[in-house]
Write a structure and sequence with these properties.
By secondary structure, the protein is of the alpha/beta class. It has a single domain, classed as 4-Layer Sandwich (Purple Acid Phosphatase, chain A, domain 2), CATH 3.60.21. Helices cover 32% and strands 21% of the residues. The protein contains 7 helices and 10 strands. It has helices at 13-24, 45-53, 63-73, 82-97, 137-144, 211-220, 226-235, and strands spanning 2-6, 31-34, 58-59, 103-105, 117-119, 151-154, 161-165, 168-172, 185-194, 199-208. The strands form 2 sheets. A 5-stranded mixed sheet has the order 3-2-1-9-10. A 5-stranded mixed sheet has the order 4-5-6-8-7, with helices on one face. Helix 2 links the parallel strand 2 (31-34) and strand 3.
Length: 238
Amino acid sequence: MRIAVMSDVHGFALALDAVLADLSRQGKVDEIIVAGDLCEVGPAPADVLATLRGSRYTVLQGNTDRNLAEAASGVAEAGDVGFALEQIGDAGVRYLAGLRFSRRITPPGGSSPKDDLLAVHANPHDLDRRLHPEMTDGAVREVLGATRAAIVAFGHVHIAYTRQVDATLLVDVSAVGNPKDRDLRSKYGLFSWDAVAREWKTELRRVPYPLAETAAQIRASHLPNPERTLRTLERASY
């Protein structure tokens, strides 16, 4: 069994295309999971949704997806999300609002929950608290709570890393659209179940970013401050 997990596209459709093209060259995968934050920030949120809605991927909700849906319904202030809301329309908002929170996979011959791969946006309990690489083990345990899984795969922090805490391997697959680990390459994770060893093998893949094409798309869009968006993207850090 092979599972791909990617996250945090953030409206950068050309980066998503580059990641999917790389993934297509990696051989058969049984499931592709996109772990949320699909639209807000980049120049082409509608294109991102068109790609995902026309696929058989498992798509999860991220905090910005929730925020967009709440802003559209008047539950929260619209803030700077007007461009994304205008681009995706009512149908896109309904799609974001209806996304699932998590995906748990028990591999063939494995035992649940100890052998499971659990994919979420930020952590197993909510869409906001970070599993940051600099947290202490105690702080990580507090966020994970009673969750049991061999792997928790997530995005949200936009920093690619793996870290073992007790019986669980944390894997931040970083971001497709706007990584923040000072490496402007799109990232995603490939997880392969070894039925003999009864364990998951993890690979964090890094894909060259289509920066020139994305810069042209940003400048041609109606983003409220395209040059700021481009500078932030190129910096690839917080």
